[in-house]
Amino acid sequence: MSAEQKVAIKVYMSCPKSRSKAQKIAVGPSGVESVALKGDDKNQTEITGDGIDAAEITRLLRKKIGNAVLQSVGAAAAAGGDGDKKKEEDKGK
């Protein structure tokens, strides 16, 4: 069983149409649950899912869109992630 992970890929897009194309490409591989565009220029694609092949998605984006840079791969925060903070506050009291 693989843990849920979050991948951030910066894609240099030449036009707004490329954003929707990038989302369609990122959703394609197995294990992908959600894709969101982040950043000031909406040029960072954030992908969340189980067992994601980040290198494969980056390769596909480079092939179909253009320059793409894999920025980070890490564990996704659990839903309701405030639980750990509350536990720490309770210990301090």
Automatic annotation (TrEMBL):
Residue ranges constituting the HMA domain according to the UniProt record: 4-73
Example of a GO MF term: metal ion binding
Signal peptide per UniProt: none
PANTHER family on file: OS04G0464100 PROTEIN
Name of the protein: HMA domain-containing protein
Origin species: Acer negundo
